[in-house]
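Data availability (excerpt). All sequences and predicted token strings are deposited with the supplementary files. A representative entry, HAD family hydrolase, is shown inline so that the format can be inspected without opening the archive.
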Amino acid sequence: MAKYKLAIFDWDGTILDSIGTIVNSVHGAAKDLNLPILDDQTVKNIIGLRLDTAIGQLYPELSQEELRIFLENYTKHFHFLEKVAPNLYPNVIETLQKLREENILLAVATGKSRVGLDRILNMLGLADFFDATRCADETAGKPDPKMLHELLTQFGLTNKEAIMVGDASFDLQMANNANIDCIAVSYGAQPTSSLKNYSPKYIIDQFNELINHLIIP
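Structure token line:
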């Protein structure tokens, strides 16, 4: 029996092993513009935000035109690297299928653009796998709870019937803002020590641990 009717997942760093791709794309775009190369963890700490917001936080000195060029260069680097190795974390498909067998609805709430999410879903053959998806460029970005509220409304559910799973503080803060339970994953962008501040019900080290937390034997 399922504990929740809807499981909502972040994408990068939770389902897709793409943290290195994002970090290297930021470094590549920065190098193109002769900007300082920030340490990896600093870049990881902004993963989950809308891309323009994230880069604006990393490089607040950029003008609007420089930011536009940075985003273009980032996209070029990302598309190249994404084609090399777009890998799901271990046991993702098997776990999601198990949740679906328990009639749990599956959704994605991501800081990615709609174009970016649809592209990678198609690359992985998962375009029809999720019951719903929300992207930052078509609603409010994290940690605003709007995309979670939209998903609840779409399925006619209350906040107590859904749970959010993510690897970043923005994911968990968004869940807190929507008064939705959340689960943190330890293998993504941010260290467990920072995720604990947002009171996740559980912290998991492997994706398939979700089965034990979302399904009652």
